[in-house]
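In response to reviewer comment 3 from the previous cycle, which asked for concrete evidence that the modeling workflow produces usable outputs, we include below a single protein chain processed end to end. The sequence was submitted unchanged, and the resulting C-alpha cells are shown without manual editing.
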Amino acid sequence: MTSFTATYSAEDNKIRIYASSRLDAETYARVKEAGFKWAPKQDLFVAPKWTPQREDLALELAGEIEPEEMTLAERAAMKAARFEELAHKRHAQANAFSRRADELSQAFYMGQPILVGHHSERGARKTQARMHSASTAAVKAGKAATYWLGRAGSAEHFANRKNDPRTRANRIKTLLADLRDFQRGINAAHAALAIWEQITTDEQICHALGNMESRKIWANYDLYHKVDRGEVTPADARRLCIEGATLAVNGPNRHRWIEHILHRLAFERAMLGDVPRYEGALTPVIIQAFAREHGAESPKSTASGTGQFLLESPVPLPAHIASDASLELSEDAWRDLMQACGYTVPEKKARRASDKPAAAPLINLSREQAEQLQRIWNLRMVAARKGKQGAATPNEIRATTQAFYSANSKGDYDVFKTVEIAADGRPVRMGWQGNERVRSGEPVARIRISSLGNHFYQPDAVVIITDKPGNPLPIDLDALEADARRAANEEVEA
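The workflow returned the following C-alpha cells.
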C-alpha cells in the first residue's frame, strides 16, 4: 500500500507530495488533474503554487501537510550541482569529439586532396564525412556544456534573488494587491445583498436587472434577458443573485485564499525583520490608509475627544481587522493592531523644492486704485502713440463677480486673465535676450485684467471683483501717475 507525505514551503509557495511507491492509475489521474507534476530527480510530485483544491488533495492523501524541511537555497544548490554535472559530461563529450575530428583530419595532412577516380576516393570521402560529423558533434556538445553551466548559475542566482530584501518587499506589495482583490469581491457581495434587501417587487427586480451593472447586483450578464423572455421569474432571479452573493461572503474558498495570503504576508515580513510599532502621532488618515491597504471598502475614520478612533465602512470590515462594519479602539490598540497586521506607516516624503520662483500675491484692487492704475495705463498709451499714426483710445475698469470671472478665464482666449505687474505698474512680459527668455521686470503682484472689446492702441482694462474685499497694491501709484501725465503732456505740447 502506498503511503504519502505532503509538505508545504512558504519560500516558494509550493505543495509537494512524496509517495512511497508507484501510484495507481486513478490516484495518478487525480494528482495530475490537480496540477501536480512529477519531478524525477527529486522523486516527488510538486504543484506550481498553493490552491485550496491542491491542499485538500494533499490532506486527503497524506492526512496532514508538514513544513518543507529543505530550504530554497539547498534545493537550488542541488539543482546547480546536477546542472554542473551535466555541463562536465557535455564538456568531456565535446573534447572527445574534438580529438576524434583531429585524428581523422590527419588523413588530409598538408592539404592532401581527394583523388577523384582513384581507388582511395571512396575511403577518403567517408573519412571526411566522419571528420565533419565529429566536428559538428563537438560544437553541439560545447554549446550544451555552456547551456548547463548557465542553468547552474541561474539556479543559484534565482534562489539569491528570491531572498533579496527588495524582491521580498515587492512580493509583499503583490500579496497585498491579491488580498485587496479577494476582499473587494466580498465587499461587492455585501453591497449587493444590501441592494437586494431594498428590492422585492417584480417591477423593481426587472428594473434593477435592466438598468444596474451586473457586478453591482451580483447577477449574471444574461439574467435580465432570461427574465425578459420568461425563462426565469423575477423572484427566482432575485434568489439566484442573493445566493451567489451569500456564497461569495460565506464561501470557504475565498476566505481560505485570504487566510493563506495573510500567512504568506506574515512569513515574508518576518523574513524582513520585526515590524516596528508605530509610535508617532496617530491620525484618522493613517488608520484609513491601513484599512484601505488591507481591502476595506471606502474606510472612514474619525477621532473622538476621549482618545478613541472610530473606523467605519459601508460594508463589514475585513475579517482580520474586525467582524463588523465599524471598529473603535484606543490609540495604543490601533498601534497594536497595525503591528499585528504587519502594517508599517509610510514615512513622509520630503517635498521637492521647486525651481520656480514664488508666485506674486493675487490682489483684488479697490475701485479707487483700479481707476488710478487704469489712468496710468491710458496715459502711457497716449505717450506711446507720440508722433505716430492712430490715436490712443482710453479704457475703463470692469467690475464683475468671482463666479462670472472664473467661468470666463479658463483659457488664453477667454475674456479675463490674470497677469503679473512690476513695481513700475507695467505687466510683466516674457521676451528674448540672446538665447534666453527673460522677464521684462520683477513681479510684485498679480491682478486681473480684461481685453474684451479692445480697440487698436487701447490698453487692457483693470478688473475688480465686487464680491471680494479690495487690497492695496505695493506700488506708489501717485508717483507713477505723475510720470505718466508728464509723458502724456509732452506729447500734447509736441
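The longest strand covers residues 443-450. We consider this sufficient to address the reviewer's concern, and the full set will be provided in the supplementary archive.
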